[in-house]
Structures are given as C-alpha cells and as structure tokens.
Amino acid sequence: MTLSEYRKTQSWQGAIAIGPALINLAEALPASEEMGLSFQLRQLMVEVPAAVANDLMRGTEARHKAVLRLVAAIELIDKVYPALDTASVRTSVDQLADRLTGLAFQEELTPGQASAAPAPAPAPMPREEVGEPAGVPVLEGSAPAEPAAPVEPAMPAEAPEQPDASAAEPTHINVQAE
Q: Domains (ranges, CATH) in the chain?
C-alpha cells in the first residue's frame, strides 16, 4: 500500500476520528493528570493512527500494542475517575479496537476506493517449529514468540592503522639566533 492510500482506509480514518474525543477526555481530567493519564491520551491520539499506517504500509502488527495501551488508559480513567462520563469514548475505543485487532483491519479502502489487494498475512508457524513446548497456552490471535537469537559479546572495533610517529619525516623549524 502506498503512502497516500493508507489514509483512505477505514482503519486509518477510525483511528484519526477518535482523536477529538481523546483530547476532550484529556482536558476533562484534573490538572494533576497533566503529566499522567492526560499525557498518555494525547500520545495515543497520534500513536494509534501512526501504528495503523505502519501496519498497512509494512504489514507489521504494531497497532496491537498501541490499541491495548489506549484500552488500558480508558479503563484506568474509568476506575480512578468514576465521576467522568467516558461512555461514548469507551464505546468508540472498543469499536476501534475490534476493527484494528480483528479481520476488519484487512479491509483496505473505504467503499468506492480502488487499490491492489492486500498481501495475505503469513501463516503462523506450528509451535514446535519455533521452539515452544506444546503445553504453553497461546492467546487466540497472538503469534508464537520467536526464539531469541544468541547474543554474542561485542568485539571492539579495530582502530585503523596509524602511521608510526617515529617513522614520519621530521619537521624542521628554522629558528634564527640573534
């Protein structure tokens, strides 16, 4: 998907459309949350659409972490500030989360737009092939963890060869005695 095409997707437009509601909620929080939950909401207002664009363009799944952070922030606001009316924001966030973490995300463009078909997602490897024991539960929709590559100690970079100072031609300075 090209840079200009991702803006036409329902997933991108949904992530952008939730921005004003997040700002309104951030402003409704007490001033003591300026560097806390309010700050998190402002960050997520940009992070979620950026993750959607990244996923659409590169085929990654960065959006999952951003969406989960957004859902958690709304949940915390509900628990810490129950007097705040977050019902409409929560509904919008839940709908967006369902779209971004479900099959609806694969829907490329809004109706009436044309684009090449999306590349199919790679099939997950069987758990035995990635080194996980068969008894380890995996959440539905989550990919098995890749085994970590062994970390080798970093070797210091060799310094480029310097010419030997004693082998360099001497510099003569003429000092005239008075």
A: 6-105 (1.20.1440)
